[in-house]
Amino acid sequence: MKDHEVKTLMQSTLEDFQLSRKERGEIRDLLDKVKGDEQKRALYRSMAFDAAREVLGKADAGQRYQTLDWLEDAVKALHPAENLPAAGKAGSDHAFFSPEDNCVGKITEMFGQARSTVDVCVFTITDNRIVDAMERAHKRRVQIRVISDDEKAMDKGSDIDHLDRLGIPVRVDRSEHHMHHKFAIFDKSKLLTGSYNWTRSAALHNEENFLITSNRDLLKDFTRMFDKLWRDFS
């Protein structure tokens, strides 16, 4: 494969911000042909950075995170012997407290980083900043599902009907009791959960908290609960 063809390959894999299994295979085949040629490997790495830099210049916030994820995957594919756990992975769990921390900013950031799915199970949603981030993710074809409380969905300022009109699947409970959970699962790999409702009051005034974790056992437990409620509220 000629150098200009390698550049084209890099650019084409960046179109959807992901390296598919087929694309990883193409890169491995390419490396087999230049095995031991560190100069070529460095050239291809430079091409990956150039492709990412070009996209970053015109990307929105969500696309910037996706581009950086792609670049990390591309570099790992070019240096398979260096596929070690990323620095900081072991300490990837973090807690956020309102109103001191920018909780709404972190939630909108999570939607900006989402690449494929987000499952939301929150008692009430009235903060338009979060809803705008959800809409942007929806337009990027991130598959979003929302579960909320039926009574709170009728409150003034609730955005549940708006999300439904956008084409985002929404389900609510139908009982005299409350669906009081507050959690969200991003790309089946990150869990956000705590006391924090997605409201302006929570962002500005209330003493609230949530944590973000990649703990597999917790992700499994919360995914199972979301799927159960999704079936129950159908």
Commentary on this structure:
The protein is of the alpha/beta class. It folds into two domains: 3-82; 92-232, Endonuclease, Chain A. 48% of the residues lie in helices and 15% in strands. It contains nine helices and seven strands; from the N terminus they run H-H-H-H-E-H-E-H-E-H-E-E-E-H-E-H. It has helices at residues 3-13, 21-33, 38-56, 61-78, 103-113, 128-139, 160-165, 200-204, 216-232, and strands at 94-98, 117-122, 143-148, 170-172, 182-186, 190-194, 208-213. It has a seven-stranded mixed sheet with strand order 1-7-6-5-2-3-4, sandwiched between helices. The model is unreliable at 82-90 (pLDDT under 50).
